[in-house]
Amino acid sequence: MTDQLLPLSRTEKTRARLLAAGFELFAEKGYEQTRISDIAAAAGVTEMTFYRHFGSKDQLLIDDPYDPLIASAIGEQPAGLRPLARAVRGIRLAWRRLPITDDAPIRQRVAIVASTPTLLPTLRASSAATERAIADQLVADGADLTDATVAAAAAMAALMAGLTSWAVTDSGSLGDAVERSLDVLESRDE
Hints:
mainly alpha; single chain
């Protein structure tokens, strides 16, 4: 049996059109100047359809479906490791499992967020949710709450700093940026 990609559903196609239209308009007009009605019209849908897919304009850029994957990968790490080592190794494992073949849209998305000050609170909220998922997994596996919280915050700070730098410098691949960010936190002597 050969692996075949399933055709996108109507919902997935609409979501993809909305994302593409949003990114194009953000690049052309800027994030602040782009209205939801502009995105919907460019995608050929109504504003109501936009809201069925995204609760707000910032969700086009901030939406993060990776928290369960990260928590699961952290849970696979040996419980005897320190919380920071478990977090870093789990994030690295989750990253390596992602089937990202084109990092240009991700670079564009992160660059828009990094250059739009009004998006920083939304980005921080998204990062905080990921931190909670990481800390919760570490605590569930027996780590002290404070140690888990600090480890999660350190891991997310490293990732966010590395990804933001990668997006605005336009150098290297996304994979290299993620790995380098995690390398800063992980001692090779462990």
